[in-house]
Amino acid sequence: MLNIQDVTHAFDEHTVLHAINLTVEAGEILCLLGPSGCGKTTLLRLIAGLEQVQYGEIIFDGQSIVEIPVHQRNFGLMFQDFALFPHLNVLDNVLFGLKSRRIPRADALKRAREMLSLVGMQHYAARDVSQLSGGERQRVALARSLAPSPRLLMLDEPLGSLDARLRENLLTELRQIIKSIGLTTIYVTHDQHEAYAVADRIAVMNVGHVEQVGEQEAIYKRPHTSFVARFLGLDNIVPVENMNGSCVYTALGQFEIQGQADALLLHPLGIHIVNPSQDEAIYGVVTERRFQGERYRLSLRHQSGIVLIFYVNADDTQSIPEVGDQISIGCKPEFIVPLKT
Amino acid sequence: MRKFLLILLLSLLLVSAASVFAQDNTTLTVVTHDSFAVSEEILSQFEAETGITVRILRSGDAGTMVNQSILSKSNPLGDVMYGIDNTFLSRALDAELFIPYESPLLNTVREEFLIDDAHRVTPVDFGDVCLNYDVAFFTENNLPVPQTLRDLTDPIYKGMLVVENPANSSPGLAFLLATIAEFGEAGDYTYLDFWADLVENDVFVSDDWSDAYFAQFTVPSGGVGSRPLVVSYASSPPAEVLFAEETPDTAPTASIVADGTCFRQVEFVGILDGTEHVEAAQQFVDFMLSREFQEDMPLQMFVFPVIEDAALPDVFEEYALIPENPSLLTIEQIDENREAWIMAWAEVVLR
Amino acid sequence: MGRSRVALKFNLGRGVLLAPLIFLTIFYFYPLVSILSVSLFPAGRIDLSGFSEIATSAYYHRIVWFTIRQAIISTVLTILLALPCAYLFARYRFPGRSILLALTTLPFVLPPVVVAIAFTSLIGRGGLLNRLLMSQLGLSSPPLQFEQTFAIIIIVHVFYNFSIALRMMTGFWMNQSRRIEEAARVMGAHGWRLWWTIYLPILRPVIAASGILVFIFTFTSFGVILILGGVRFATIEVEIYRQTTSIFNLPLAAALSLLQIAIMTAMMLAYTRLQRNLPLELQATRHTLQNLSTRRAYTLIILLVSLIAIMIFTPLLALVVRSFMSSTSGTFSLRFYKMLTVNTRSSILFVPPVDAIINSVKFAFITTLLASVLGMMAAYLLARRGVFFARWIDPLFMLPLATSAVTLGFGFIIALDEPPLNLRTSPMLIPIAHTLVALPFVVRSLLPALRRIPPNIPEAARMLGASPVSVWWLVELPLMLRSLVVGAVFAFTISMGEFGASLFIARPETPTLPVAIFRLFSRPGAESAGQALALSVILMGVSFVSFLVIERLRTPGTGEF
Q: I need a surface site. Which of A146, A292, C64, C104 has the fewest CB within 10 A?
């Protein structure tokens, strides 16, 4: 549906996007996930046409769109702070896009009211936008973006300015509404949990590069780079010191892997306490023990100074190690993930 | 119906065309100073005879009028300029404001006024700038009337004199020129020393003649003015008589015409370069030299005719004094030094 | 596959925004360059005689000194008067407070010609006060002799600028935290000590800013000095006019113009620098106001109200009264108004006085349109972030404000009366000059409004399918409308009252209202003076209506003035 090819973009001398290649399939929700400043908003604005493409190509439905002016693309964009028109009421905000597309007044009104019902704001039509709460604004902004039936919907941190509880509630609702219409959607966020909840696929971005694209679980279980691993909160990263065929040497000992690696991730999901006599056991001291409800989060410091995080279920039959205990752990081979830097 | 409309349209066109022809409408704009005046019937008669419509454009006093005309030379404000006098003449001639015209009526003009051999300007009238005084005031206070310029520096006349700023006002400049002719620029007591003494004696400087005469001078202002001595014209006393609500037995003012106290101004008319109505302009110049106009002027503008055989009105015969020996400077002398004199004057007087 | 798209396409929309720059180049810089060339190269060769004359002649020293002296005295008196008033306005709540505060703005929109004539009607030789005193005390001559004195110039300047200083100070003071003052009070400071140690230091920035503004306005004072000062007083501005029209020393006039531009530019720079640090909110945060409690506060307020009433309203009232008063009998009469439609050949004006009203309204409408359109474009040009020269262009649009109106008029006369641009006879010349004067006000009014529109609001509109023109028309314009109207009304008012430039360039067949008033007023005789009064009242009426519109629409912080 949408093909981004080799898009490179710079502000002044500063390159913010490096040869981006990305595809969004029809009807899917793709999440652009990354820290602030990674270029995800710029990419969104390039697709929207709010920035002029400097190098590369953006194809939509088999056609290049880079020369098409913003207002003729028929894409929807929902801004982080919603950008509602302060001089118009709720209904007129939603009607705005319909009027721009010269839809007859009666049809436009019908459509606008439908959209307001869809987001549950049908009773607010005559309200001034300044009288709305944050969540209400978000709904109106969504209705406004959806009303002209955009070919592509883009949401830029749509929950970013709302408080945590409201976010939880709106997240699922947002996905349901989008899916009910079947819109192709790009969703920009810096919050992995938001991405997990909303996306069909996730593209993780870092300093102008797309680091990895895939479904939630695939990305979480097998990150490709140290950046992705760390960004998802996976910090058990061990630098590779030496490599010999499929055998890699690290400060923690040697591991068998497939392919090349600059570092290894010992995924917390694969770490468990083992008998000290076991072959590949890693010894260390427990430096932190944090109760998290259904599980404990433990930190183990290896003599090399490397700290590994792992979890033990709270209902585990064996006793939970105390801080200061000397223990040994092991990692299942499928959870030893080779990383590029 | 359509025919009717066509006829209507045609007749409308004809009527408008006819009105254009009937008017034969040459509108002549006369650029002049604020004091210009003429009897309406005389001007109307001229208009009726020639088919020329005359519009009067007053643009400040003589100096401002000349300067403005020079500044808008490429787009003249009018067709004819009247009221430029011998104190500003050279500036206008240098700027080549006028195109020459030798009026057939020039032979009626008194010889002494024909100073431009190229006939770029034509003399129309003259007037003497003299000190005027409030007769009643001097009698009541038992004051002697000053007989020389030097007398004005006498402390008994302290706070009594009002003069005009020579930078903007033509009588003001004339009076300054009279003082220069009298005291000279060099020697023990120059005109600047004289002016310094006048300042010492609390002379008041008005921006123009109107303010000096109507607002500062005691007689015509109905008690608002406070100064019984003013630089004005030799023709002002008859004017006072003429305009008095009930004709007085004697003039309330008189002019001092002693030798060396007056300066003679001659006013000229010229056809402005760039006019599209040369012929009409020439007709207007002739009109100004006509007996009707020349005899009308004294009572309208309180100036004296330049043609030989014009009769003066009775009030003039009775109350106007004509100085026998007005001060004279040539227009070349004035031209060379005018700015320097004015600036030097301003440095001494305007503090 | 990738291809570079860095090559810039010519953007028509952006090109249009350059129009105000082109306008400025033709009608500001070109005349200015002409002044320079007349001044420095009068005969094709470099000639600094104009400057050396100014440098050496005591006459010009005196003019420069007078200009500075009257500006300083006017400024100091204005500030001294405005300070205590600002104190009361910033401190107390009392009936009629906001109306009074609004009304003090009135003088600011009144043309100098009107104000000068209003004061003459009140305290001039034949003014109401003198008439009253003469009839009551049986005097034979007017006891008040203010005409052509230094005092009346200062009085009128204070009248004029009091309101600006008052509003700036009140606004600033109300935004200041009261804690420092309360702390000082706790430590025992009161009375004069409080003023010296707390108030004045706190107010220093606003005193400096308003002081500079008042200095700028009085330094370039023209109409007031020309009408009230007589021959003995001349600011540089008045002298430029005299040197041009009376003495005809163009190189000197040009040199004086340049001197003034240099001084004014320095002042404007200082002002914009100071102003940047001032949060100038005009409306109060209500809770900081105290109710009147003490007898002393009551007395102060009553004094304040009377002072403002006397200062602002008596001259204007006198003007109205005199315009309806028969000059002979002193009874009510509409004669002066009726005479406005008559054009006699003996009139000082080339056209009936009522034509001047029509001309001025026409010119004002054209000016409003021109200034609004150009001001809008200029605001977009300046608001565009990333346009690297925006910071250099911004002060450019303020330059006409630093250049006096007389200089503008002078420049027009020497630059625009010959090919390639012969506009001397064009009736557009006056609105063009007025637009130059009004443009900074419109830009200053629009720019903050435009900057306050978050960039994603127009972007949202574009995303919703609105073309660039629709975005402007449906979104940005409605959001700037108030500021646009305020700016437009400013332009209208400025054009109606503009005097200095018009005096130079108005042709006799198309006089503006202030020019007609000046001409009529300088002509002796009750008739023309009466017509001048009647025209002044009409002009005052128009200004007053504009003022009401501005006051209604001005929201806190909408303008940078």
A: A292
- Which residue is closest to A152 within chain C, CA to CA? C463
Cβ pair C531, C522 in contact under 8 A = no
> B134 and B164 share a domain?
yes
Domain A238-339: top CATH class = mainly beta
Question: pLDDT for C485-538, tens place per residue?
Answer: 888 988 998 899 899 899 888 887 888 999 999 888 877 667 778 888 899 999
What proportion of chain C, given as a percentage, has pLDDT over 70? Answer: 89
Closest A-chain CA to C459: A50
Q: Hey, what amino acid is at B318?
A: E
Partner C contacted by A87 (CB < 8 A): yes
What count of residues does chain A have?
341
- Least confident span in A75-79, C24-28, C339-343: C339-343
Range of the domain at C519: 12-37+356-555
Report yes or no: A77 at the C interface, CB cutoff 8 Å.
yes
Is the CB of B211 less than 8 angstroms away from the CB of C524?
yes
Chain B residue closest in CA terms to C523: B210
B297 and B343 belong to one structural domain? no
Split into its structural domains, chain C has a count of 2
Asked if residue A19 has pLDDT above 80, the reply is yes
Average predicted confidence (pLDDT) for chain B: 85
B205 and C230 within 8 Å at the Cβ level: the answer is yes
The angle at the Cα of A332, spanning A331 to A334, to the nearest 5 degrees, equals 125
Neighbours of chain C (3+ CB pairs under 8 A): A, B
Whether residue C398 is found in the same domain as residue C520:
yes
Residue B343 has pLDDT above 70, yes or no: yes
Q: Class for domain A2-226, per CATH?
A: alpha beta
Q: Are residues B273 and B337 in the same domain?
A: no
Q: A335: distance to nearest CA of chain C, Å?
A: 39
Do C294 and C435 lie in one domain? The reply is no
Partners of B67 on chain C (C-beta within 8 Å) are 244-246, 248
The answer to whether residues C497 and C547 touch, using CB atoms and an 8 Å cutoff, is no
Q: What is the pLDDT of residue B213?
A: 86
Q: Say which residue, C2 or A273, is predicted with more confidence.
A: A273
- Mean pLDDT lowest for which of A123-127, B196-200, C188-192? C188-192
Is B174 within a domain? yes
Q: Which of B37, B43, B70 comes nearest C248 by C-beta? A: B70
Give chain C's mean pLDDT: 81
Three-state DSSP state, A252:
coil
Count of domains observed in chain B: 2
Q: Within this chain, do residues C80 and C116 fall inside the same structural domain, yes or no?
A: yes
Look at residue C4 in the predicted model and tell me its pLDDT. Answer: 46
Residue B94 neighbours by CB distance under 10 Å: 10
Q: Using CA atoms, how far apart are residues B267 and B87, in angstroms rounded to an integer?
A: 9
Residue A227's contacts (CB-CB under 8 Å, 6 or more residues apart) are: A204, A206, A211
Pick the residue of C56, C133, C252, C345 with the most B CBs within 10 A to test the interface with B by mutation. C345
ipTM summary value: 0.84
Q: What is the dihedral of CA A180, A184, A189, A195, to 10 degrees?
A: 60
H runs (alpha helix) in A182-305: 192-198, 216-221, 226-231
Q: Which has the closest alpha carbon to C174: C291, C285, C300, C94?
A: C285
Q: State the Cα–Cα distance between residues A214 and B265, nearest whole angstrom.
A: 104
| Chain A interface mutation, best of C4, C5, C8, C464, highest count of A Cβ atoms under 10 Å | C464
- Asked whether residue B173 falls in the same domain as residue B86, the answer is no
Q: What is the mean pLDDT of residues C315-341?
A: 80
Q: Do residues A328 and A274 touch, judged by C-beta distance below 8 A?
A: yes
Work out the pLDDT band at C283, boundaries 50, 70, 90: very low
For B206, the domain range is 128-263+321-349
| pLDDT one-digit tens code per residue, C193-204 | 778 877 888 888
> Among B94, B176, B211, which would you mutate to test the C interface (most chain C Cβ atoms within 10 Å of its Cβ)?
B211
